Amino acid sequence: SQQGEEDPQALSIQEGENATMNCSYKTSINNLQWYRQNSGRGLVHLILIRSNEREKHSGRLRVTLDTSKKSSSLLITASRAADTASYFCATVDNYGQNFVFGPGTRLSVLP
Amino acid sequence: NAGVTQTPKFRVLKTGQSMTLLCAQDMNHEYMYWYRQDPGMGLRLIHYSVGEGTTAKGEVPDGYNVSRLKKQNFLLGLESAAPSQTSVYFCASSYSGQGPTDTQYFGPGTRLTVL
Lengths: 111, 115
Description:
Shape of chain A: globular
Oligomer: heterodimer
Low-confidence stretches of chain B: none
Number of strands of chain A: 11
Shape of chain B: globular
Structural class of chain A: mainly beta
Distance between the termini of chain A: 37 Å
Largest sheet of chain B: 7 strands, mixed
Strand content of chain B: over 45%
Structural class of chain B: mainly beta
Largest interface: A-B, 24 and 26 residues
Radius of gyration of chain B: 13 Å
Number of strands of chain B: 11
């Protein structure tokens, strides 16, 4: 069963707009990570947020984590056409043994 | 550093044939993983290894075998390929499986088609 579930499944926005993707999970976690996958390529790590953190920034990325709601969000500000990709959240459980990906959000940024 | 590399990039098999996918990493990572990704879906863990000489089953291990004889290599074998194994296979590695060093580094993928 999927631990992480992204929402929405697909998102289409204009260049310059902000994009928000959400991830929900089911069990206690050690950390939650966001990855990006360009078409036909492997995944690339974007940002990691630990279970005791609530918000983290990296460039145009902002990630929040609400462990009480078992959810996380990824905000991409001032989107660019190059941000077009699929975005996945992945959770690591407290035992560090299970690394589970959600089905992803397909983001299209239109020029 | 090359990071994580996968061989081959593409392969077409007939049902019942066997093959081995090779993953190599040059980052001295302890953990290595094999995933499959089907259209419109996230990655599903097939097998993983927490160190040289160790392997463990993931979410979808049936029909696959793995070996980690050397720390830098992780092999995925299909003994008798089936059309249901048509997928894109990704290898990944991480320094450890716990704590802030859990970031996984992915290879470019192997696209496998079983006819």
